[in-house]
Amino acid sequence: MDCIFCKISKGEIPSNILYEDEKYLAILDLDQTKEGHSLVIPKKHIEDFTKLSAEELKEMFNIAHNVGSMILEKLHKNGISYNFNYGSLQDIKHVHLHLCPEQKGKNEKTPDEVYSILKGD
Length: 121
Hints:
Blueprint: H1 4-9, E1 17-20, E2 24-28, E3 38-42, H2 54-74, E4 80-84, E5 97-101, H3 111-119
Antiparallel strand pairs: 1-2, 2-3, 3-5, 4-5
């Protein structure tokens, strides 16, 4: 399979992992148009959120809640949005939940600097 999220889940492509368990990953999005923009993805290939069970949705939002709280605290943000893209809005056909912290103005930090702050390095 040529899915970038499947390759990340298998460790074939490096990523900035914020959270990992046997079923899910939370990673820092490389496109940091919003400082701290992160993704929660299932390790199992699931094309879109309509294919998720209620339990899987709950698990993803629980992870998003915890990772989102860390982002808000460590990056000193005061708002965050959570969203799934679907259909033509979905660039990668592997379900992923976006965590987009509040950001005013242009992002000043590189993805590596943001990752360092979030991981406490």
